[in-house]
Specification:
Elements: E1 3-9, E2 18-24, E3 32-42, H1 44-51, E4 67-75, E5 87-91, E6 103-107, E7 111-113, H2 120-123, H3 126-140, E8 148-151, H4 157-168, E9 172-177, H5 180-188, E10 193-196, H6 202-209, E11 215-220, H7 223-233, E12 234-242, H8 254-258, E13 262-265, H9 273-289, E14 296-301, H10 305-312, E15 320-324
Parallel strand pairs: 8-9, 8-11, 9-10, 11-12, 12-13, 14-15
Antiparallel strand pairs: 1-2, 3-4, 3-6, 3-15, 4-5, 5-7
Helix pairs in contact: 3-4, 3-9
């Protein structure tokens, strides 16, 4: 049997466990497609799984990667939506067939058309980041036109998608970032106001930007640092959606009571197939219309996946990190 290049995890641990290897070339089966990967997205969830500390763990050995983009090479007997040669992006969360490889086998429901105006690296930025941003804004917070949304960590892959999707939906967008370049990028993507999260006085500046009313929605990437402060920034009936957290935090629950605030958690593992299909339909429309244009940050060759993981948690990272295959 022929083989393809991939990144293989044989034991859980640090970035060094991401080893270049040869794996069996995938063979198409009914209901699935084989995709030649051109770019694979790198996500924090893959790093958490790699360490062995995540709630869901794959059987080993494991080829990581939930996001990717490439060209369909073969389609299963029951597949009618796609044909060989189609350009697609992959969002394979829920499957352990990884995208850190030259080719991968995908269930057809994890495959989505890639418009000709969108590059393969941009396509590799769609799965986890764009779906997370969309669900946080509209599936969990039920953000509405005319409301104000604060996106913490807005220069990251999820944050930049959230900024663009919120602006396109008619919300006023505020964003935080940790570098001058990041702040400028968030503004270019559509934020009306940007704030340096290194500035201890940012809470007062955010309140001033809303004329003291507060924001209706907060998309929170690091609840372990910000949640208590977030509650003080929300307007009456405001909602904060926790996308990420790296530990515990103490909050004052009284802050939620006087204004009827809501603290909402989310994970993509809870998304039903029906909801996921609807989200990708909306994201596909946004890609085609140009209201969503994923921002690609650093690109690494596939064999440098370990170095990409070492850089992944850098708080100054901008946009989506991808592996070019």
């Amino acid at each position: 049997m022929s083989s393809v290049k991939a990144i293989l995890v044989r034991t859980f641990g640090g970035p060094e466990v991401l080893q270049p290897a040869e794996v069996d070339d995938p063979v198409v089966t009914p209901g699935r497609v084989v995709v030649r990967i051109q770019a694979a997205g790198v996500n924090p969830v893959e790093a958490y799984i790699r360490t062995g500390s995540y709630a869901r763990l794959p059987p080993l050995p494991w080829v990581p990667g939930f996001d990717g983009a490439g060209i369909i090479e073969a389609v299963g007997s029951s597949v009618t939506r796609f044909q060989p040669g189609d350009c697609v992006y992959l969002a394979t969360l829920g499957s352990w067939n990884g995208t850190y490889a030259e080719r991968t086998l995908c269930d057809v429901e994890h495959v989505h058309p890639l418009p000709p105006t969108v590059s393969f690296p941009q396509g590799a930025a769609m799965g986890v980041p764009a779906v997370t941003a969309y669900r946080a804004l509209f599936g969990r917070a039920h953000a509405r036109r005319g409301e104000t949304v604060l996106v913490h960590g807005a220069s990251g892959a999820v944050g930049l998608c959230a900024v663009q999707l919120a602006k396109a939906a008619g919300l006023t967008v505020l964003g935080t970032a940790g570098t001058d370049d990041g702040l400028a990028l968030v503004r270019r993507m559509g934020a009306a106001h940007v704030f340096d999260h290194r500035d201890d006085g940012r809470a007062d500046l955010i309140r001033a930007a809303t004329d003291g009313r507060g924001v209706d929605v907060i998309i929170e990437m690091l609840a372990s640092a910000n949640l208590d402060r977030d509650l003080g920034l929300l307007a009456p009936r405001g909602r904060v959606v926790i996308v990420g957290s790296r530990g515990r935090i103490e909050i004052d629950p009284r802050q939620t009571m006087g204004k009827d605030l809501s603290v909402l958690g989310m994970t993509l593992w809870n998304v039903s197939p029906e909801e996921m299909s609807q989200i990708h339909e909306r994201l596909g429309q946004a890609l085609t219309e140009g209201t969503l244009s994923p921002v690609v940050g650093r690109e690494f060759p596939l064999e440098e996946a370990a170095e990409a993981h070492r850089m992944l948690m850098n708080s100054s990272a901008q946009g989506k990190m991808v592996l070019v295959v």
